[in-house]
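RECORD TYPE: protein structure
NAME: BLOC-1-related complex subunit 7
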Amino acid sequence: MASAESQPRFGQSVKGLLSDKVGSCSGDVIALTRQVLKGSHSQELLGQAARNMVIQEDAILHSEDSLRKMSIITTHLQYQQEAIQKNVEHSKNLQDQLRHLLK
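PREDICTED:
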């Protein structure tokens, strides 16, 4: 009879242990799933960051090109300004010569 009494207890304790183990494994699976989802979200964020960096790099290259062009235009405008100043000086000289001739 001792064996008959211990049999249900043993069965119940095994069922309890098994239930605990299943619960623990379920918790582990849930934790693993959450971690995989976090990793997937992290990958998405990294991919978006990489795309944004490419866009920014293109914008920087375009800005550098624009600055280079503006520098060239500035140089040309400086040459034109110098030429205009020389022409103004030359025209003043011509005006002085005309005044002298008309006197």
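COMMENT: Residues 2-102 form the longest helix (101 residues).
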